[in-house]
Write a structure and sequence with these properties.
Distance between the termini: 57 Å
Order of helices and strands: EEHHEE
Helix content: 10-25%
Number of domains: 1
Strand order of the largest sheet: 1-2
Oligomer: single chain
Structural class: alpha+beta
Largest sheet: 2 strands, antiparallel
Strand content: 15-25%
């Protein structure tokens, strides 16, 4: 059965690859998804399921991760993002970073 998803026409028998790693990167749901915002307001996270299938530890896991990163960032005098350059490896199902030291840090 023919349908349209995200402006693309899909024909019966077409293959669809679902990229779970990109679910939280929808700019309509989380504006400016490429920015690293630890305290993003009204964050929508799809990594922990939803409704009655939602992980009961979601809030705790996100809070622990956020606080751990904040402690690490505050313990370093130079912001970490300034020390590294990165690019992403080609992948169909995830964003796999490759880090390159900045010339100043060598």
């Amino acid at each position: 059965m023919r349908c349209t998803v995200g402006g693309r026409v899909l024909e019966e028998g077409d293959t669809v690859l679902v990229l779970l790693a990109s679910a939280n990167r929808d700019p309509d749901v989380n504006p400016d998804p490429d920015s690293f915002l630890l305290r993003r307001t009204q964050r929508r996270t799809f990594s922990f399921g939803a409704a009655r299938h939602e992980c009961p530890g979601r809030a705790l896991a996100l809070t622990i991760a956020c606080e751990a990163i904040l402690v690490w960032l505050h313990s370093h005098p130079v912001p970490f993002a300034r020390l590294l350059r990165w690019d992403y490896l080609p992948s169909h199902n995830g964003r796999i970073p490759t880090f390159y030291p900045d010339e100043e840090t060598r």
